Amino acid sequence: EELRMSKMNNFDVQSTSCVLCGRTDDCPEKYGEKRTYVECNLTVHYYCLLMSSGIWQRGEEDEGVDGFLITDIRKEVNRAAKLKCNICKKKGASIGCVAPKCKRSYHFPCGLQRECIFQFMEDFRSYCWEHRPVQEFTDKEPREPSQCTICLDLVEHLSVYTVLKSPCCKNAWFHRECLQYQALSAGIFFFRCTVCNNKDKFQKEMLRMGIHIPERDASWELEENAYQDLLHCYQHCDVKRCLCKKGRDYNEPDSKWEIKRCQYCGSRGTHLACSSMKSWEQNWDCMECRSILAKSGQYSKRRKRALAASENTNGTTCLLEEPPPKSPRQSSGSPRSFLLQSPKMMCQNLSPCSHLELPASNRVTMSLSPVMSNRNWSLSLRHKHLREKRREVCNILKELKAQVKTKTTRLNINAENIWSSALKGFRQRIFSPTNTIEINFSNCKNRSKTNTSAASKHHFFQLLMLHLQNSSLFEGSSGKNLSLDFQAVKENLYFEAGKMIAVSLVHGGPAPGFFSKTLFKCLVYGPENVKPVLEDVADIDVAQTIQTIKYANNLSSLQSTLQDCCEFLAAAGCLRPVTALCDKNMLVNDLLIYHVIKRIILPLESFRQGLKTLGVLEKMQMHPDVFSSIFCHKPERLSAETVCDLFTIHSSSDVNKVEGADFWMGYLQDVESGESVVTLEDILVFVTGSCYVPSIGFDPEPTIKFLHIRYPIGNRLLNCLELPITKTYHQFKNIMELTIRNTLRVERD
Predict the structure, then answer these.
(1) Is 66 exposed, middle or buried (0-12, 13-18, 19+ CB in 10 A)?
(2) Do residues 688 and 646 share a domain?
(3) Phi, psi of 261 (to 5 degrees)
(4) What is the pLDDT of residues 673-683, one digit of tens each?
(5) Is residue 722, in this structure, part of any structural domain at all?
(6) How many domains does one find in the chain?
(7) Are both 470 and 510 inside the same structural domain?
(8) 175: enclosing H helix or E strand
(9) How far is Cα 417 from Cα 413, in angstroms, rounded to an integer?
């Protein structure tokens, strides 16, 4: 026994080959589990054993290999040793086609490669590439490609091995590989049509077409403690400023420090005291759910009624009044209800429980639409997910900004020739990415004094990112890849472009937002680990040629196409003999890799080196999902909600609490809906000098003060907006429009 154990410890499973196919591969998804029996000196792939033509299960389940006796396996090996594989021409072909008069034999892996069909049911039959079963296609079948309902990539409606259609749904098409992976994961109890949920008819057809459905429970059901997380309740206070001295995670039941979860998503929470909630019976909804619900229903014109009510109270609407004890604390359904409930307040001399989630006393409640359309809901969730990622990016960039010193470097920039002047500035000997950057626009002598250094810097980086997006260094329409510009390679411009993007992110500029997913993955994971798609090819002629090869539906048309473009194939190093229609898949993949990745490998490496500036690329590689939100997606359009959430409202002690705050939030909603002569971008420029929100956020964070002044003041040094206190909303709006419009007009002139 000790000798046998010693042999087992020294036994290298990876080096052993299957006695039936002769391969050492250990790939359970393709060949089944690789079983090794040291005492019998036997290694076999489970699928090779199941599909072998000359062996049956003569034993019990616990005998031999799942009922296949060891002696029978050796007999089958001896039988197969006399048969030559019709594919690889080597001996040991244990599987034969069951079609009458067909004498083809092959190994299981060879059969998969040659697109044979193996039926994992009943007698475990096998069919060669000529006699395999096919699915019937009618003339009424749509010929244009549709989405695979599993991977959501396009799938051609062709009668080929790699494509399968659902027997129960007319418009459900799948990649064979996608279906096989889903079957292995779901098992016989959960594998069904992804569209109509049919099980019996769907499984029967898929088994006939060679999909292996294992007789076991789903993989997610077999994981130990797979659903353990569902038993945990979310207990964390997420309001802007938590009042609990024992921390955000502290939860004391039946007290004001008990945590109440969002009634809609349950993934956000608040202490009762932190949201001025008097009892547990009151409902609470988080900011994200509130904004989704506020935009989902059909709303009436509430604005005039709300303003009339506010004017009747002489502009002294109290935002601290609580709703009745049994009234559900939820969004009222008005277009700006989410604004009225969610100012980020930091009021002095107010009660400690009254500065967050403050409801308006004159709110007119309306019923909300309980069900949103699937499209709007998924879109809202997608935007919510992107916002969460961008918040994470903001925190990461702030960590990188700790490298920036107070020592300044001034760049003289000509806005009309942004690229040349920026390149000259970045290449000057005294320039350092860790120095604070100051921008002087040399062609703007009469520039307004209100344009601070920060405003000039925001404008500079915005112009620079816009130039890069439209420069010859990138190609493509929306999602761009690097182009091949030999002069740019010679002048090391790709490095400088990567460096500029890194500096822009850390110094408060905008993110690029125009990268393709393929380019981003090349930067993060390395080009050798990326598989490009046809949409990545910017050259129309090249894309059409590859598309013609990809959609060739028979061998003769494929060979004719390849004959016509042999020079094109030779230039890409892809000129090769093609003997089967399935060879086009590998050919198309190689062409895409050449034109999208291999061709620009030098610019790509230079660009990566530039992105290493200030440690940006390293953070991208550590947090790829987070950084893709700013590299591959355009910045979110400004909305009343985002602007409202951007500012923290202060109130001085001589002001009647937060008088005027409801006017400010109502004004934002009017601007968003187009009922104003200014835009949300104008408001942001008036206060900060920037028309966009930097990926790293503003420094300092924007604030609002309500003062006894005649006109609003935008302090760009402090990012502070000082607002006048007025008696009516009409007065407030007129003063805001007049001041912001005239100030920006003077600056532009």
Answers:
(1) middle
(2) yes
(3) -90, 155
(4) 989 999 999 99
(5) yes
(6) 4
(7) yes
(8) strand 173-175
(9) 8
Query: What is the rounded CA–CA span in Å between residue 710 and residue 707?
Result: 9
User: How many CB atoms are located within 10 Å of the residue 709 CB?
Assistant: 13
Matching residue, tokens 């090996």: 77
Q: How far apart are CA 234 and CA 256, in angstroms?
A: 17
What are the tens digits of pLDDT across the range 8-36?
A: 444 444 458 899 999 988 888 889 889 88
Tens digits of per-residue pLDDT, 636-664?
888 888 898 899 887 553 444 455 778 89
pTM: 0.53
Beta strands in 321-450 (DSSP E): 344-347, 405-413, 435-441
- Domain-ending residue, one of 585, 608, 632: 632
- CA–chain centroid gap for 603, Å, is 26
Question: Do 527 and 622 fall within a single domain?
Answer: yes
Cα 487 to Cα 553: distance, rounded to the nearest angstrom? 41
Burial grade of 12 (CB within 10 A; 0-12, 13-18, 19 or more): exposed
> Does some domain include residue 254?
no
Strands (DSSP E) found in 604-736 = 648-651, 703-707, 713-715, 720-724
* Terminal Cα-to-Cα distance of the chain (whole angstroms): 94
Nearest to 159 by CA among 745, 589, 581: 581
103 and 164 both lie in a single domain: no
Q: Is 712 domain-assigned? A: yes
Positive or negative, the CA dihedral 410, 412, 417, 423 is negative
Task: Please check whether residue 673 lies inside any domain of the structure.
Answer: yes
Report the amino acid identity of residue 71. Answer: T
- Tokens 């009151």: give the residue: 282
For residue 387, list its beta bridge partners: none
pLDDT tens across 441-489, in order? 886 544 444 456 788 899 999 999 999 999 999 998 878 999 999 899 9
Pairing state between β 481-482 and 648-651 = unpaired
Q: Using CA atoms, how far apart are residues 451 and 438, in angstroms rounded to an integer?
A: 12
DSSP string, 693-748: --TT--SSPPEEEEES-SS-EEETTTTEEEEE--SSHHHHHHHHHHHHHHHHHHHH
* 87: its two tokens: 């594919």
Residues 119 and 171 in one domain: no
Domain that holds residue 509: 387-534+600-632
The Cα 721–Cα 203 span in angstroms is 65
Q: Which amino acid is at 589?
A: N
CA separation for the pair 282, 295 (Å, rounded): 22
Residues 522 and 621 in one domain: yes
User: Which residues, listed in sequence order, are joined to residue 37 by a DSSP beta bridge?
Assistant: 42
Buried b (16+ CB within 10 A) or exposed e, 520-536: bbbbbeebeebebeebb
Q: Same structural domain for residues 494 and 617?
A: yes
How many CA atoms lie within 13 Å of 680's alpha carbon, on the beta-carbon side?
21
- Signed CA dihedral, 371, 373, 379, 382: sign only: positive
User: Do 700 and 627 have their domain in common?
Assistant: no
Which residue type does 633 have?
H
pLDDT tens per residue across span 65-94: 888 999 999 999 999 999 999 999 999 999
Q: pLDDT per residue over 216-271, tens digit each?
A: 888 877 777 666 666 677 889 998 889 898 899 999 888 889 999 888 888 889 99
Amino acid identity, residue 154?
Answer: L
**Cβ–Cβ under 8 Å, residues 196 and 169:** yes
Question: In this structure, are residues 193 and 168 in contact, taking their beta carbons and an 8 Å threshold?
Answer: yes
Beta-strand relationship, 648-651 and 703-707? parallel
Assigned token pair, 109: 């892996």
Residues 6 or more apart from 344 whose CB is under 8 A from it?
Answer: 240, 356, 645, 647, 648, 649
Distance from the Cα of residue 674 to its chain's centroid:
31
